Amino acid sequence: MRRNRVGTREIASMGYDALSEVLEIEFQRDGQVWQYTEVPEDLWYRLRGVAEIDGFYYRHICGQFKERAVYRGRRRAGYREGE
Hints:
Blueprint: E1 4-5, E2 11-17, E3 22-27, E4 33-37, H1 41-49, H2 53-60, E5 67-71
Antiparallel strand pairs: 1-2, 2-3, 3-4, 4-5
Helix pairs in contact: 1-2
């Protein structure tokens, strides 16, 4: 999925697939990418249009939709492949 950079304090980028109603968010702190399913398209447009994206995300998306990590982010210090 193509994501657009937003560069807020919490969110690095976000994208949306209207056919599958999937929202994808990449986080600043560790590069993790999460997908949220069954997100209505109008909510995506509202998210894109608000001044405070982080607050909107925490109020209206986080914990409100089925979610799954699709990328777990950068490696930790001391991480070895296969752990």
